[in-house]
Amino acid sequence: MVQLLGIIPSLKAIKSALFLCLLFLLRGGIRMKKLERDYQPSIISRLEREFPGGIVMKNDATYRQGYPDLIFTYGKTIHLETKRDESATFRPNQEYYINLINEQGGFARSIRPENEDEVFREIHDYLFDCKIDILTFNKNYRKKYLK
Predict the structure, then answer these.
(1) 56-80 pLDDT, tens digit each
(2) Using CA of residue 83, residue 87, residue 90, residue 91, what is the dihedral sign?
(3) What is the pTM of this model?
């Protein structure tokens, strides 16, 4: 019995370990990758801030699998598929719907933190610059970002 007491940590050591664990958790613990659902609100807020009066709608993923997450209307319609970061892959049908919308003369993009500013510039050009040829614009996007 005396030998067992030698390997059992003291109450002070247990308290110290618990304190360190609690401190670790309070400071954020292990940083998990940001989820898409955590990124979407910032996109919605930015759309509403940069284009006041525009309407943002969030699509129901169970209704039409792969259809872009957000639809934004501001005189014209924008479809956005949000991704949490550059490493996030497309789910079934997502590229198909982005390509289909673009081929039909619409505006659809995949947006992530790494290309957010570029996509917002494209949205601004699409909404306000009538000189752009949207079909050529969309072909260039497809070559750059999609398969």
Answers:
(1) 999 998 888 999 999 999 989 999 9
(2) negative
(3) 0.67
